[in-house]
Amino acid sequence: MRELALSTDQQTRQSVAGNPNTLVDVLLGLGAEFPSQLLDNPVFPLLLLENLNLVAEIPLPTLRSILKQENIPVYILEQAADQADLKVQLALVKNVQTPKGVLNRLTQSRHPQVVESAPSSLLLTWPY
Known about the structure:
The protein is mainly alpha-helical and 128 residues long.
């Protein structure tokens, strides 16, 4: 699988990202390019159960990519809020599934762009 993940053929790499037999490090690396396949991979939820720190160990390019997806588990959104990375925090603010509690936490970010964006996201999700 490691060798197939390096293929120049996009379809091959995409298939490797969706294969439950793919090694974890290879899978997480391919997640940057194929976030939907990573999230839909049947082994991914098991990896999250097996390693409670997995979100912190996901490479930043992959985390940034999966945070832009609609079918991301709330647990990942909550755990990703601990990342100090600007692009991760902005992706959280833009994801409509991000819980209000996470958005509230992001109003305390060290990044001014995130602080400015988070309140407007809270207004968009406010239940009237």
